[in-house]
Each structure stands twice: as C-alpha cells, then as structure tokens.
Amino acid sequence: MKKGEAGNVFYRNARFYSFNKIKDMLMKSGLTIMNVCSTIFQKPTEEPLNFEAPRSGYHREAGFVAIEAGKNPSTEI
Fold it and tell me: Which long-range contacts does 56-63 make (Cβ < 8 Å, 24+ apart)?
C-alpha cells in the first residue's frame, strides 16, 4: 500500500481486498467461486528465486490468489 501512495507505476491504481471480502462481493453479485489457485510463496528477497507451480485452493500465506467465478446456476432466468 505504501508503494501505491508513493506513486509506484504498478501499485498506484491497485486495490487490494481480502479473500473473504472478494467472496462476499461475488456472492452479493450473484456469482459463485468455481476455482481458486494460490502462488508466490517465496519472499521477494530470497535468492535464488525458484519457479513455483500454483497450488490449488486458497492459501493465506500466498502472495497472489487467482479466483475463477461464474454465474450461480440458481440465479439464472
């Protein structure tokens, strides 16, 4: 967050939300989580940085979480 406040090109327009906040927003929008993958478990200062395969599911210690969401079948007309 400090990087965004400092005008960092990658962070200045970014919004960061907790996993639970995203789940809540998706549910209120009528969407369902279909798949979740987590990655970036290394600290950026670790050397050498090694390739990391994404892990299935939500992992709190991950630096990045990808969420696939879709329409909830029960809300379709």
Answer: 58/19, 60/19, 62/38, 63/39
Is 11 part of any domain?
no
Range of the domain at 67: 17-75
Could you tell me if residue 66 is inside a domain? yes
The pTM of the full predicted model, rounded to 2 decimals, is 0.73
Overall number of domains in the chain: 1
Write out pLDDT tens, residues 47-62: 777 888 999 999 999 9
| CB burial string 46-77: b at 16+ within 10 A, e below | eeeeeeeebeeebbeebeebebebeeeeeeee
**Which amino acid belongs to residue 38?**
S
